[in-house]
Amino acid sequence: MTTITFDTQEAVIKLKAVGVSQEHADAFVRAIVESQNSLATKADIELALSPIKTDLAVLKADSVTLKWMMGVLIAGVMSVIIKTFF
Predict the structure, then answer these.
(1) Residue range 18-48, pLDDT digits in tens
(2) CB-based contact 50:11 (threshold 8 Å)
(3) What does the alpha-carbon distance between residue 19 and residue 11 come to, in Å, rounded to a whole number?
């Protein structure tokens, strides 16, 4: 995972400027920093989705093959039906 840059000192100063106490500002900024450790980046998501994309590509290729096979099967059955009754 990638580290996200966050200026904690500037955040504390801005919070204090709007009337938040030093203790609350520090606690709030610590909570933000700790929560950023569990964020997923675009690269993390792409890495997790890579095997799924591969599986979907295989399924898509199989579905195309099945469509062709069903088409040929239906054409064969229709030709037998037409030959039998006409």
Answers:
(1) 999 999 999 999 888 888 877 888 888 999 9
(2) no
(3) 13
Residue 2 pLDDT: 56
Nearest to 34 by CA among 67, 68, 3: 3
Compute the mean pLDDT over every residue in the chain, rounded to the nearest whole number: 88
Q: Where are the domains of the chain?
A: 1-39, 51-86
What's the CA gap between 9 and 5, in Å, rounded?
12
Question: Contact 1/35 with Cβ under 8 angstroms?
Answer: no
Kindly report, residue by residue over 41-83, the tens digit of the pLDDT.
888 899 999 999 999 999 998 898 899 999 999 999 999 999 9
19: left (phi over 0), alpha (psi -120 to 50) or beta: left
pTM of the entire predicted model: 0.45
